[in-house]
Amino acid sequence: PSHVExxxxxxxxFAEHHGSAxxxxxITSGGTKVPLESxxxxxxxxxxxxxxxxxxxxxxLDSGYAVIFLHRxxxxxxxxxxxxxxxxxxxxxxxxxxEDAGQILVDQNALPNIAKVLKRxxxxxxxxxxxxxxFNTLSEYLHLLKAAAQALSSIGSKAMFYLAAAxxxxxxxxxxxxxxxxxxxxxPLQIMKMVPKMLSPLVKDWAPxxxxxxxxxxxxxxxxxxxxxxxxxxxxHQTVVANVLDTRRGYVVVVTKDTQQELVLTDEEVQKxxxxxxxxxxxxxxxHSEFMSRQV
Length: 296
Ligand code: 9Z3
Known about the structure:
The protein has a single domain (about 5-80, about 115-295), classed as CoaB-like (Rossmann fold). Strands 7-4-1-8-11-12-13-14 form an eight-stranded mixed beta sheet, sandwiched between helices. Strands 2-3 form a two-stranded antiparallel ribbon. About 35% of the residues lie in helices and about 20% in strands. By secondary structure, it is α/β, with parallel strands linked by helices. The chain has eight helices and 14 strands. Helix 1 packs parallel to helix 4 and helix 2 crosses helix 8 (about 275-295). The structure holds ligand 9Z3.
């Protein structure tokens, strides 16, 4: 991607700025886009609103982690995600009196908890604890993930990778990609290749000491755990968080080689707007502590 060099610099600064003491997490979030033509009219997209990643970022920040937030352009973003349903202009009012001219009033009923959220957001920003990096395409995602892993390689086991982005399994290699819009008169499309799995080089080469968590998404619950185990066996990383599309907001299974733990929200918790990411993040930060203590 054209901005990869610039992003590498920011990531290196981010890694240095926080010294070797603190823990960092790279959160990936949102779906990747795979173009079908180099002058793209059509593309294949993976579903993800980005809520899992954006919400988790907040809980990691609350737990003292610094966060690289590698997310799909325009997917949900930490803190501001709480106001995505709000029309910003409807919640502002221009003061027209002579002395106050130019001032703007905020309707705090339209933006619930805005003062508290703004305070936290500004503190996180001022301390440089959140580095947002955007991707659109699968290829951008892969290059930027590699860059993040390399930037954090110096902090070893203090780095966590929380791979919640929905990543395409299929792509078209650049050398096979047509330049112009594919014509339907040429018949059905049979052009996709399998994406080489980036989890292998991430675990083996780019960040061999880091604590790595991947997410497994299925729509058929009966194959979920078997797929999670297979991923752990294939890639040899620490944890898979398994979820089913329809129930992902209230139920996940945290799977390791020797354990599997269900995290479930009760109806009462859902009503109180408890978020499952709160549970996932506290489970994983604890596991990360244990992982770090075993490395020394
Ligand atoms: C997930 O499973 C995430 O939990 C969701 C979150 C994408 C379901 P939302 O963003 O949804 O809150 O709307 N992410 C991983 C999906 C994925 O592509 N996993 C790959 C796979 O299942 C492995 S890396 O093969």
